[in-house]
Protein: PP4R1 phosphatase
Organism: Bucco capensis
Amino acid sequence: NMDSTLHYIHNDSDLSTNSSFSPEEERKSKVQDVVPQALLDQYLSMTDPSRAQTVDTEIAKHCAYSLPGVALTLGRQNWHCLKDTYETLASDMQWKVRRTLAFSIHELAVILGDQLTAGDLVPVFNGFLKDLDEVRIGVLKHLHDFLKLLHVEKRREYLYQLQEFLVTDNSRNWRFRAELAEQLILLLDLYSARDIYDYLRPIAFSLCADKVSSVRWISYKLVSEMVKKLYMASTSTLVVDLMSELVEKFCRCRKWSGRQTFVFICQMISEDDCLPMDQFA
């Protein structure tokens, strides 16, 4: 009987706010009026561990892949229907499931808005940051997209964690470091000159000395953009300090590769007009 199956609740006040739901309240908390309830129930049942093992080992991954689309369809007012499922998938034993969610968490943040993102997505995001490299690359590739959605104070908390991206499970995973350099260029717009100098500068200098040339080339661009950003900031002493360190660290380096790095950074700075020529001189 379709009438009994498609049972809707129109009033949010019917939903219990108690964290310890009875089975009946648990069922009600998953009810909405956007799509047929039977369809949503079928989707939510896909994360049942016993079902995933007996029916299809890939089912959880497919469920994770389509979750942002389901969330968009239901709207942020019905996020309560999906929250438990999302948290179950985020702690799934299969890294491919967690990786799928990591690649789409920034999209979900746009759908949910800043309040729900801060409460429900940030803890999951923090967990992904400490996960396997295969999962971490998902949040790293969209780091700027996610952090720009957070409030300034919350965003600053991640400055302390950016250094951790330099450490990977496999040191040969140079694409991870290259992606970090690309993201840092974008992150320059989100942070103050002081934060850039204190937190992003040491990472940039470390990447400039990377063993892989592809990583170094992106890092030269990162440093030149950093010089430009600090020069445009009102605190002009920071750009002077940064350039002094470039001279000390690379120009006067005993290794020829360090001195070569200095030349390439100078090339980037002059080509991109990061400084007036008298300041450059």
